[in-house]
């Protein structure tokens, strides 16, 4: 079942785009905020568009602004690349979880699809697949729409830096964790299957967040959870 | 390592793009070299839930009562109405409400 090649249909693309709709306000505000913050740090409009278009990773783009500078040395370029890799290390695990779905896809094709991997479409696609779906268009549809809007929101954000004056007031900085929490509900497969991995993932992530800098806690917790599931023998019933 | 690069920001953007893209594909490349035994299968299928929990819990705890309230409200509304948009809106409203009430 998992070895059949994934298909992409217009219907799947559309479904992915529709499933992304609840996240659009948050995505657009985040994009505006990035554009505004970039302008504030002296990043030109072209550079901001390039960041959104070819890096396409909100958290990493925001963090990179902290170390942004006017003149770059090989050392500072390396530093920003390493920071980016740390913030995006969770994509490694997200990709790993998608791999069984992608079996049989030519590497170049899979490689081009994966450019669009972000939190939102990974989560939407994982949930869709958990429900028995097989159309990889859902992943791409959500990824493409969010990519276009992410770039589109960066531009007005950069041009009018004060467009979003108080995103915090409407808790818009919490869109991603709150959406993740809601999506945890359909991913829960009962105490027997999910109980132990989730408990371990949460405990390890929480402990790691206290001692390790940055976003390493996501990777530490998620790996611990997956390992727990792998090492636990399923009850034979 | 201290000489300024011409068009330095281009290098920075390219390096960030490369680092990100490598993160995006390396999980798939890595797993394609591993046989999908039942054990690996179990680990992979527990990965989405584990990533979600490992992301949400520390962020909520680190942020405070506003985020914790929003997260709990979102989970409860998702269980009751089974609609992502409703759950997101309720979660945001509760978080914003706690912020306003507590002056956070």
Structure characterization notes:
The complex is a heterodimer of chains A (237) and B (104). Chain A is an all-alpha fold. Chain A has 2 domains: 10-187, no CATH class; 189-237, no CATH class. Chain A has 12 helices and no strands. Chain B has helices at residues 8-32, 38-63, 65-81, 84-102. Chain B has one domain. In chain B, helix 2 (38-63) packs across helix 3 and helix 3 packs antiparallel against helix 4 (84-102). Chain B is flat, with a radius of gyration of 21 Å. At the A-B interface, helix 3, helix 4, helix 5, helix 6 and helix 7 of A face helix 1, helix 2, helix 3 and helix 4 of B.
What is the topological layout?
The complex is a heterodimer of chains A (237) and B (104).
Chain A: H1 10-20, H2 24-40, H3 45-55, H4 58-66, H5 74-87, H6 90-102, H7 107-114, H8 119-130, H9 137-159, H10 175-187, H11 190-211, H12 216-231
Helix pairs in contact in A: 1-9, 2-3, 2-4, 2-9, 3-9, 4-5, 8-9, 8-10, 11-12
Chain B: H1 8-32, H2 38-63, H3 65-81, H4 84-102
Helix pairs in contact in B: 2-3, 3-4
Characteristic terms for this protein:
heterodimer, A: 237 residues, mainly alpha, 2 domains, globular, B: 104 residues, 4 helices
Helix content of chain A: over 70%
Number of helices of chain B: 4
Sheet of most strands of chain A? none
How many beta strands in the DSSP annotation of chain A?
A: 0
Going by helix content, strand content and strand pairing, the class of chain A is mainly alpha
**Structural domains of chain B: how many:** 1
Counted up, domains of chain A total: 2
* Rg for CA atoms of chain B: 21 Å
* Secondary-structure element series of chain A: HHHHHHHHHHHH
Total of helices of chain A: 12
Describe the global form of chain A. globular
Q: Tell me about the largest β-sheet of chain B.
A: none
How much strand content do the residues of chain A show? Answer: under 5%
Low-confidence stretches of chain B at least 5 residues in length (pLDDT < 50)? none
Q: Calculate the terminal CA-CA distance of chain B, rounded to whole Å.
A: 44 Å
> Which band does the percent of strand residues of chain B land in?
under 5%
Radius of gyration based on Cα positions of chain A: 19 Å
The greatest inter-chain interface is formed by: A-B, 105 and 76 residues
Annotation, overall tally of beta strands of chain B: 0
Overall pLDDT score of chain A: 89
Mean pLDDT of chain B: 91
């Amino acid at each position: 079942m998992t070895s059949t090649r994934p298909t992409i249909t217009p219907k799947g693309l559309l479904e992915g785009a529709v499933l992304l709709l609840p996240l659009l306000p948050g995505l657009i505000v985040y994009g505006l905020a990035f554009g505004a913050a970039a302008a504030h740090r002296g990043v030109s409009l072209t550079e901001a568009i390039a960041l959104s278009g070819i890096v396409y990773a909100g958290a990493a783009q925001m963090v990179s602004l902290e170390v942004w500078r006017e003149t770059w040395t090989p050392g500072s370029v390396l530093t920003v690349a390493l920071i980016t890799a740390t913030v995006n290390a969770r994509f490694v695990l997200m990709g790993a979880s998608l791999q069984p779905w992608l079996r049989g896809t030519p590497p170049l094709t899979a490689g081009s699809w994966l450019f669009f991997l972000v939190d939102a479409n990974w989560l939407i696609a994982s949930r869709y697949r958990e429900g028995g779906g097989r159309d990889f268009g859902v992943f791409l549809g959500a990824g493409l729409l969010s990519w276009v809007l992410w770039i589109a929101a960066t531009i007005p954000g950069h041009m009018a830096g004060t467009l979003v004056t108080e995103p915090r007031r409407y808790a818009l900085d919490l869109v991603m964790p709150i959406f993740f929490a809601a999506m945890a509900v359909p991913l829960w497969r009962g105490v027997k299957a999910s109980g132990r991995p989730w408990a371990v993932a949460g405990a390890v992530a929480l402990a790691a967040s206290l001692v390790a800098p940055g976003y390493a806690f996501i990777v530490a917790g998620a790996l611990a959870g997956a390992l727990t599931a792998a090492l636990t023998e399923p009850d034979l019933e | 390592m201290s000489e300024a690069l011409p068009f330095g920001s281009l290098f920075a953007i390219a390096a960030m793009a490369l680092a990100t893209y490598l993160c995006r594909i390396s999980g798939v490349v890595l797993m394609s070299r591993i046989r999908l035994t039942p054990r690996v299968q179990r680990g992979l299928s527990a990965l989405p839930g584990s990533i979600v929990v490992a992301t949400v819990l520390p962020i909520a705890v680190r942020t405070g009562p506003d985020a914790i309230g929003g997260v709990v409200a979102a989970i409860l509304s998702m269980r009751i109405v089974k609609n992502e948009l409703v759950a997101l809106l309720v979660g945001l409203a509760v978080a914003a409400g706690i912020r306003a009430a507590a002056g956070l």
